[in-house]
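pasting input
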Amino acid sequence: MQAGATTRIGMIGTGAIGGFYGVMLARAGYDVHFLLRSEFAAVADRGLRVASEVHGALTLDPVQAYRSAADMPPCDWLLVGAKTTSNADLAPAIIQAAAAGAKVLLLQNGLDVEDELRPLLPDSLHLLGGLCLVCVHRVGPGVVAHQALGAVNIGYHSGPGRDQAERMAIVEEGAGLFRTAGIDSQAMADLQQARWQKLVWNVPYNGLSVLLGASTTPLMADDHSRGLIQALMDEVVRGARACGHQIAPGYAEYLFTMTEKMPDYWPSMYHDYSHKRPLELDAIYGRPLAAAKAAGCELPKIEALYQALAFLDRHNADGERGKHGQ
Amino acid sequence: MQAGATTRIGMIGTGAIGGFYGVMLARAGYDVHFLLRSEFAAVADRGLRVASEVHGALTLDPVQAYRSAADMPPCDWLLVGAKTTSNADLAPAIIQAAAAGAKVLLLQNGLDVEDELRPLLPDSLHLLGGLCLVCVHRVGPGVVAHQALGAVNIGYHSGPGRDQAERMAIVEEGAGLFRTAGIDSQAMADLQQARWQKLVWNVPYNGLSVLLGASTTPLMADDHSRGLIQALMDEVVRGARACGHQIAPGYAEYLFTMTEKMPDYWPSMYHDYSHKRPLELDAIYGRPLAAAKAAGCELPKIEALYQALAFLDRHNADGERGKHGQ
């Protein structure tokens, strides 16, 4: 299927998320341009490769790769796959690569991840959020492993869209890009709802992978960790409700069962921790806790997990666990 | 001070706790006999040594050391310094070393640690519990480091003591042994009260040392871990109250401040974890949680900590954290 050749997509941050979706979109015929930093030379040389257990071995070569956003052509859609912890730093690149009235889509987890970026962007740019339910990880420069899933749920955050109808039309256009590339995608009427919904997965699995040094299979095989996962999911659902977002009954159970059936998976936060990168604690824990608390709702287990992770994140640069204070 | 030469004390399990208190009691003139297993040869050869930052370098040599309880003379007091996880296994040794009407004192943390042992002992033996607020750890065969503190709070569990007066007289006799040895000791009217009180320290510090791989100094230096410690302490106080035990106002703050002033300390659970020994999770977490729940009181942060620790305990034999499932 070759479609949408006139839509130009810029990928800002080509890690596991950017690499996977960028290759899928380029293979569907979109004109995709990739901004890269440390992996530029490898990708310019050998292209981008996705080893997918779903779609097979995919290669994009040559790649329209750039070291600097100043060299990119004006893009209609800018997809941001970088960490939430670097959003503010990306604003100049986003602005340079944006066509007039471009749509900026943050493919990131957590709550309010647009808030830091929004004031740095011109009012003429649309800002959207996308929640990716996908098992991908980077295995080397320009090489991404895709183990399972892929769906992207999109919602409108802010920008020149004048009313809900206009905003939903833009969200539908975004969802259409992914669907054309063979990826399930839902247009969500409420971005906050979509973000809370995705937290039902991220809050337990991201944090526990770091805290317990465990991937999904052992976490789902032990009664105590299963109980803790369910309790954390319940608290996310309660927090969402307190903030005015009803998560559908059975949704948490659906994610729990889906995770049980997934191939063994290390969430991205575990990779961040093991590479001593800052953890996305604010987006995934700090802001949801604050939002729930402001609505009068305590989430004690999530708070305990957050406090433990914040300690580990702070000491991660020191060296191995078990060496603090010795 | 040489006192109580007629009181014969048997030490069952000569690790850090048994070694420290045994040496202190022997130096005070008590007739102390030590049951040892793996460390018998080292202790018979070179004696017991306590490197104390409070009392200086203490040596007990020769030591009245035994490989088998069958060889021990009948003891008036039996002090058990082994892990709660092995109490049932110790019953035969305790019975062999006990004089008629002997007092068995479990120097162990946690709730209801006497329950497994009690039915295995003759009714004629008194069973008591002692809560040790002390920073000690084993540094080698027969060598114990004592960093700070030492107080032992004692209460009566069960046995032939006919009424509260008779039971308290026995508890006072036990506290007197320690006080004669220069160790602060309180006779507690209610053992459960004393056990809940000690949990205010053990629940946060033991578990977090394992979960976060951190000793007391870094745990007390970070706002997130401090907040978590305080929240866990608050939950212990709430759980105790639900079970009918009022912990004095300010007691948790006292332990918190005391820990801040202590030398850097790795709780015993951390040593158990790093040596791949079973953790005392049932005594310190499982039973308090169950008791509070039975009284209608949820302790969510303690429960989350317990669930996380139970996962780690189960997988501890597998190898290093971060390797599960790989």
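fyi The mean pLDDT of chain B is 94.
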